[in-house]
Amino acid sequence: MIRDMIFDDLDQVMEIGIEAFQMHWKRKDFEYEIKENEFSHMLVYEENHVIQGMIGYYILFDDAQITTLAVRKEAQNKKIATALMNQMIENCNHENCSVVSLEVRKSNLAAKKLYEKFGFIEMNIRKGYYEDGEDAIFMMKALGGNINE
Ligand SMILES: CC(C)(COP(=O)(O)OP(=O)(O)OC[C@H]1O[C@@H](n2cnc3c(N)ncnc32)[C@H](O)[C@@H]1OP(=O)(O)O)[C@@H](O)C(=O)NCCC(=O)NCCS
Question: Which of 58, 63, 84, 113 is the most buried (most CB within 10 A)?
Answer without folding.
Answer: 84
